[in-house]
Amino acid sequence: MNLCDAQSEVKLLLSKVKPSELHKLFNWIRTSDELDELLSDNRKVILRHISAELRAALPLDAMLPSESTAYCKMQQRSRPTVHVDSFLYDEDQVDSLCEEGIFSRSYCLTCGSYKTAPLDFISHSFSISELQFLFENVLPDLSGRLLVDVGSRLGAVLYGAHVFSSASQLVGVELSEEFVKLQNDIIRKYQLTDRIQVLHSDVCLQDTLLQNADVLIMNNVFEFFMEPREQVRAWRFIMENFRKKGSLLVTIPSLQESLSTIQQEVLQPSWVEELPVDYDVYLDRDTDPDALRQIHLYRVI
Predict the structure, then answer these.
(1) Global pTM?
(2) Helix or strand or coil: residue 268?
(3) pLDDT tens, 61-104?
(4) 145 neighbors 168 (Cβ within 8 angstroms)
(5) For 2-43, how does the pLDDT look when each residue is reduced to its tens digit (9 = 90+)?
(6) What is the per-residue DSSP string for 63-117?
(7) Euclidean distance between CA atoms 49 and 228, whole angstroms
(8) Could you say which DSSP state residue 285 is in?
């Protein structure tokens, strides 16, 4: 059934519902888990299993003691900020942790008072819904393409690309030996080695890889993990080597926002053009529309 036929069927169905019952039906559509279960597929089930396994292997904030730069940068922000990995914890899971007193969404402005303010949450991973949106709505068919994830961390982009896309090669570049081992353990256990490879490397040593890449993914890659001078070096390297005409770049946040934080006029995103993204997509009730709007797509010109 195509979209036009489906719309006609829905209108016909709604015309048969008692007017007094319509609001109940709409409320059920908005809030019921039954529709999500009906629309769920095995691809998401696989990702949820991987997510659960990683949760059990990592501390609550999914950060390693070696990530001292990231810890310092989070502490330097104007408002208290905590890392909540979106691939590991969806909104329902965060709510449960808050109810159990393990986690909090707010902090006290004056110790001992009732005056509180919301904490800022930051994630260095895509959620499962965001991965589905990225590969089914943002990017085109990736058959025969090479996708590179810079700072692959837990491997969420690689797992998502494996189940949601037909890209022939998926390569993660990760500096942390611990995260590389974690990814390789998952890749072997879930038999994803046919298309996924993780390199323990600095992206600035991967000129040939970038020159051959068809898609480059960068999610909060440098801001929290490098000092400004290192960020400039990394961005320059990427701009010099990721030059294949027509290749696609996905960033969170936008290039303009990322580059503005290091205030380097010489780093202008003039080698790419931004492409429109349709954010008006329903995936499931847990999808955060604001998070989707942080995903930006560019094409090398």
Answers:
(1) 0.79
(2) coil
(3) 778 777 655 546 555 555 666 667 889 998 788 778 777 877 66
(4) yes
(5) 778 888 888 888 899 998 988 888 888 777 777 766 666 789
(6) --TT-HHHHHHHHTSSS-EEE--TTT--HHHHHHHHHTTS--SEEESSTTSS-EE
(7) 37
(8) T
